[in-house]
Amino acid sequence: MIPPPRTDLRVTPVGDGLAVDDPVTGGRARLGPESAAVWRAVLEGHHHPATLIAALPHLRPATIRDRLRQLDDALLLDGERFATQRALFERAQPLPAAADLPVRLDPALRHQCVRCGASCTGVHVGPVPDTTRAAVERLGLWRAVPGATKPDDAFARGQGPTGPWAMMRRVGEACFALNDDRACGLHAAEGPAAKPPICRQFPYTFTRGPDAVHVGLQMECARFEATLPAGAERPVAAIEAELTALVAEGAEVFDLPDPVPVAAGLWMSRAEYLKRHAWFARSLAWPPHGPGLRVLTQIVIDRVQRRHPPDAWRALAYWPGADEPDVRTARARLTIALRDLLVRLAEAADLGGRALEAEATATAGEVLDLRRLGWLETSMVWAGADACRLWNLPWHAAVREHGFVRQRDLAAGFGRIDLMVCLAQDITRARAAAGPSVQDANDGMRLASRVLRMAPVDALLRAHAFVLRTAVLGGDAPDIEAGPWLGVPA
Question: Which of 103, 239, 332, 405 is least surrounded, with the fewest CB atoms within 10 Å of its CB?
Fold first, then answer.
């Protein structure tokens, strides 16, 4: 019997779909038209696959089964999956305030800016605090913005979900505060405290755990090949002190959730995850890094999956006319969708005069090859040992900051890092086929990271996390989701 929707959920119509607020998990699920139709049919008493198929003649049996499994994976059905995992959410432990925790930086991730100015170019810097706006007015830097007649003209403003925001305007491709020496005019005149917090934080990322704020790196610095050796000369304690001050001032900090998502429909307690996390950290010593992480990911998923009793209604035999999702077809569809999206983004960036964004998206679209996912190639003999260390850096940073979990769940996040490394290598080959340098490899990594962090690209990858999971786990992931999450169009 198919379990019914839970009665404690708060359901709100949204267009042709539904928004479902869950008081147990604290989450909100968005149901598209297909999932909403399946939800209503089950609510009306169609608790067997045959009767459910008859009640929804406009949907294919495979689609009905897929959407129903997604509802169950999201713990929206009152069945065995929810019953066995409910306690994980009810026993969840709150995290201490980030400012009360020590900041932990792995020595391999030390970074020291070499003032190339590239990170101040091609991006919108912000949000901008009042202290920065006051410094811009005090120093007269706003006059660098063409057409500005007053200090406020130097900022682009808008309204977000948390309130109004302001961003630094650009002159050409660069932030207006960037001076002729490729240095920040705010920093040069009044020190780092005058800059927006995001500038002071870059390229570090913070993830709050129960015992510390864990530090990782964004892979978008244009000079990692120079900044990492420069940072290696600085004591870890000195950098940690600077980052601690940033966290205390309210820098962006992600939370390590409790429970931790492992794959679609599978969670484990944060305490248990942290015990397993030591395996991932140790696997960095295995050459090459990737396969060690893949094996450990599969072990974790297998062990979590064993706790859940089999649900007969989920078995293919119960669904006349349905079939299992074709992994190769799903990967091919995502490849086409990503390429089309990157072409549109490149055209829009070109028309808007955003040269760096146009180059990044156009190059990524030309070389994108999702068939490489799962190869976990971390060695680039043709670029030398220094390039190999750069390619391994995303894996290292993701493990140290718990980035696999932060980017959706353990399996999908792992696949996302793999995609970034593969894409970065292919961009490097396309840009410098003959004798690429370490800087070429660095440029490839920066462009790949920038593309994958774009909001439309991120949304598409999240909607098709099934492909990332199967690439990592060889197509054997249990109860994997197929297609857009809960039927919401990407």
Answer: 332
